Amino acid sequence: MDKVVVRVDRKGRLVIPKKLREKLDVRDYVEVSVEGDKIVIKPIKSVADEFFGVFKVERWPKDLDEFLAKEVTEGWLRDM
Question: Into which CATH architecture does domain 1-44 fall?
Fold first, then answer.
């Protein structure tokens, strides 16, 4: 199990060391929760990463996650 000690600054921020970020592929967002007396940080995968290459688009939307969520929802509604 990888363990490191990091400093929490006055604003409550901390830096996740690069080695750990790379190991878990942490990119933009993480989920932070409390389990008992522990703070748990879990990486969140982008919807865009999950569906990369599934949709054929002529130009990329500004917010790819929002676009994919809309397309998936509309697809489910069509299939009902």
Answer: Ribbon (2.10)
Question: Domain limits of the chain?
Answer: 1-44, 47-79
User: Could you read off the pLDDT of 17-26 as tens digits, one per residue?
Assistant: 999 999 998 9
Quick check: pTM over 0.85? no
Alpha carbon distances (Å) from 58 to 24, 51, 52, 78: 32, 16, 14, 22
Residue 9 burial (CB < 10 Å; 0-12/13-18/19+)? Answer: exposed
d(CA 70, CA 21): 29
